[in-house]
Amino acid sequence: MALVVTPIYAGLLGLLLFALSAKVIKARIRAGVSIGDGSDAELAHAIRAQGNFAEYAPMGVVLLALVELQGAPFAALHALGAALFLGHALHAYGLTHRNDLHPARKIGMVLTFSSIVFTSLGLLGHALF
Fold first, then answer.
1. What is the number of alpha carbons within 13 Å of residue 122 lying toward its C-beta?
2. What does the alpha-carbon distance between residue 113 and residue 20 come to, in Å, rounded to a whole number?
3. Tens of pLDDT, residues 72-128
4. Percentage of the chain surpassing pLDDT 90?
């Protein structure tokens, strides 16, 4: 069985990683910092947004691919993939706006964690029952 839905969201997430990385590079050049954040708040936020993405997105894609390989309905796959992508995009937007409590960050966290939890539960349910 070939993956049909997962590659869409993996591609979107790849482009988001590129955008987050470009933001870090731009902030590094502006701040004149090559390692660490140089106590520059904008750079620190950009680094953290990229780091958070790198911590959660790969697992989200792996879980989505496994659920798709187990035959989950396309509608469920798109809902989970969209939640994963939008969650990361909103979280990064909220985090890079220097306001740690930005509403987009909170909504992004809920969407990202929801996608990870629901795909994990789906996998466990399929494997155990």
1. 21
2. 20
3. 999 999 999 999 999 999 999 998 876 668 899 999 999 999 999 999 999 999 989
4. 90
Residues 24, 48: Cα–Cα separation, whole Å? 9
Phi, psi of 48 (to 5 degrees): -65, -40
Token pair recorded at residue 92: 């990064």
Q: Read off the pLDDT band of 1 (50, 70, 90).
A: confident
Supply the pTM of this predicted model.
0.92
Q: How many CB atoms lie within 10 A of CB 59?
A: 13
Question: 127 to each of 54, 84, 122, how far by Cα in Å?
Answer: 27, 22, 9
Strand, coil or helix: 118: helix
* Inter-residue contact 49 to 95 (CB < 8 Å): yes
56 close to 43: Cβ distance less than 8 angstroms: no
Q: Cα-Cα-Cα-Cα dihedral of 54, 57, 61, 66, to 10°?
A: 100
